[in-house]
Every structure is written in C-alpha cells, then in structure tokens.
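A brief tutorial aside. Many learners find it easier to grasp structure tokens once they have seen a single protein encoded end to end. The record that follows does exactly this for Aspartyl/glutamyl-tRNA(Asn/Gln) amidotransferase subunit B. Read the sequence first, then the structure, and try to relate runs of similar tokens to stretches of the chain.
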Amino acid sequence: MYRPTIGLEIHAELKTRTKMFCNSANDPDETRPNVNVCPVCMAHPGTLPVINREAVRHILRIGTAVGGTLADFTEFDRKSYFYPDIPKGYQISQYIHPLVTGGSLAGVDITRVHLEEDTARSTHSHDKSLVDFNRAGIPLMELVTEPVIKSAEEAGAFARELQLLLRTFGTSEANLEKGEMRIEANVSVAKHKAPSTKSQTNPKMGTKVEIKNLNSFRSVERAIEYEIKRQTTLIEEGGKVVQETRGWNEAKQETFHQRFKEGSADYRYFPEPDLPKLYLAEISEFSLETLRASLPELPQKRRARYQGDLKIKVSDSVTITESLEGAAFFDKVIPELTSPDQAKIAANFLISDLASEPGSVSPEFFAKLVRMFAEKTLSSRGAKDVLAIMKAEGGDPERIAKERGLIQSHDAEIFRSAVKGVLVEETKAVEEYRAGKEAVLQYLIGKSMKAAKGAGNPAMLKKLITEELGK
C-alpha cells in the first residue's frame, strides 16, 4: 500500500492600486502590452524600489485570519535567476524572514505566507517569444502548506477555501483562469507500513515532484491523482522517482517533464540592499488588535452561524457562502424572516432559483415571498412563478400574485372541477393508482397544481383526488 503526501504552493496577485515596488498601475484587465511600466519595474540602472504598504497589510490580515504568527521583524531578499520575464536578473522575494509563519486553514497546516513581486508574462510562437511587462512587479502573495495533505480532494478543498478567503477580504480576485491565482502541487508517494506498537506514526515520505501549469481546481485534483498513480506504478515496476518539475497537459490529462528541480542554493538568496528592514511591531496599524478589528466575518464562521442559529443544512451553507454576493444577500434577508423554518425556505429558493443573480431582487421583497410561501399564501409552483416575474420585472410579490391569480386558495370546491378534468385525461395514471401504485399520486397532484395554475393547495388537491378516486 502506498501513501501519498501532498503540499501546495499557491501564488495570488494582490488587489492594490500600484505595483509592489513602484507607482505603475496594478491593472490585471489591461490588454495593451507594456503600458503599465516605469523605470523601476523595468530595472533601469539607478532606480530604487519602495515597499507597497497596502500589500504588506493584505498579507498580515490573511496571516491573522489563519492564526499564523506575524513577524516582528521582516526583510526582503533577492532571488537570483535569469529569464526574460525578470528584467533585473533577480526577483525581490522573502526567504529567511517571511511576514507570516504557521497557521491553518480548512484543516491544513500552513508553513509560511510571504510577499514577492510577480514576473512579466511571456508568450511563445514557433518563431518568436514576446514579453509583456504589465504584470512585472505586481504584488504577489505566496502561501506554502506543510506536506500534510493526503488526497487530491483535500488539496482542492483547501485551494477553494483559500480563494474564498482572499475574495472575502478583498485581497485578490484570485481568478485561476486569468492567472491571478496559480497553484503548484508537490506530490510524493511512499510505501506505507503499519505503525508499530511503539509509534503510531510513519513519517517516511517519498521523493517530491512539483507540478505546475494548474489553471483550475479540477486540474489540480486530476494532476495530483495522475501523479500519485504514475509514481506508484513506477515504484512497483522497480523504477525510481526523481526530484523534478513537471507540467500538466490538460488535453492529454497527464503530467510531463519540464526540468529537474532547483534547490534554494541555486537561487543565491541574500538580503535586498535597496529596501529597508521592517520592524512591524513598531507600526501601530500592523498590530494584532488593529488587524483583527479590520477582518470581516470569515467564511467558516459564516457557515457555522447559518448551521447553528438558522439550522441550515451543511451543504446549503457551503453553497451560499461560495458566492460573496449570495451570502451578502442572504444576510440581508435573514432579519426579515421570523423563524429558522423560513430561513431554510429562503436558502432553498436562493440556491435553486436565484443563485446566479441575487441582485435582481430586493432582499425585502424576497423575504416577503418566503413568508407568503411559509404561510401557504403561495404554493411552491406559485412562489417560483412569482419569483421568476420578480427577477424579470421587479415588484412586490403580493401584488404580482394577486394580479396573476396565484394566491393559493383553500376552498376545495373551487378546484374540484380542475381535479376531475385531470383524472379524465390521465386514465393510465388513475388505473395505476387504483392497482396499488401509490407513487403515482404525486404525479396527479402535480398535474392538478398545473391545472389550478399554481393557486391550489397541494394537501387540499391530494384530498380532492383521493376523494374522487374513492367514488
């Protein structure tokens, strides 16, 4: 039996007005190449970088949220390597003294969170390569996890939770498709031996392989699954896993060799001489108390509140919090409701009928619709019809329901003729019901609801149907 060990390295571009060390605009939506550049981010001789204060604050807030240790002292380092996307011949990053150490998120321990500058963007064709320096120097968060992840599913869940946290804080849009969030997975497998009676752990890990080019959460999961199988098969056949960097081929759904992995010594780190050392404990706005006070409600706390106070299902609470707009809308609806049962109804309507466009309906009118349904003024079909009209045209659900004849009536005799008509048309269903097939009753209720144009009470229609069939 082979046991996988997985660690993630995640980069996210930060939302700041300017780049990390200069005044060039940080605009990820700029399509014209090489317009957001200046002598600093183009590494002209004699230029000096200046630290972006807001970028530092972003990282410290993330560190506070995950329960990490914030540095009292930090500094930047030069990470040397030569490639056209790094005009200086080195990247300004952090090595010995990151801004944040430790912490955890979604049950995964974090090693460190630090700041660095992004590289330029390269595009290649068969006869030439082009470099766009708009991205060069954009503030970049790097988060490294401990090698404690045991499955592709767990890795995907962590990455999704981190994206949600970044968006909740306004730290980053973190769109993988646009390269604003980039995930690298370190994967190894080792033969798992049953723990001895002396020790309940088995710390042995295999040779680490890094996977790059992962531009979706699904790609992260599939690449990890593939690499676990590849390494396991290689070992079982007598081969040896080598430390290397591999890419992910989305079309072939397989990893491929890119280069042999460098070690930290290859980058020749040393402290950046053109930037000051930072003594963060001396800066009041970076105190732990100030940072904690600046944090919005964390996604996991919001989910816990929904599940605890409102008795919302776990799966529904997860779905609602996945969308910042949807969760903000739901929080405005909650005070307008009068019971946890109404909150459950609201969650169901939000997820099934309003998930992609919660802003199209006012929270007050949406809450009124929920109350009308809970009070049986509207049937399920009627409520969905009214909500569809509210999305398209806006308006008060009570007025819409009255104008469209959707107010649910509890007068049985009004709908008896509609039920009789359905039973005449649905002779096969009637025969099946009389032959003992009870499940067909729901089908007849649905048909009767449609005939009553959503204004019939389901329990009342069921009673009418059974009465008519009993004659």
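Self-check: Residues 2-292 form one domain. If you spotted this yourself, you are ready for the next section.
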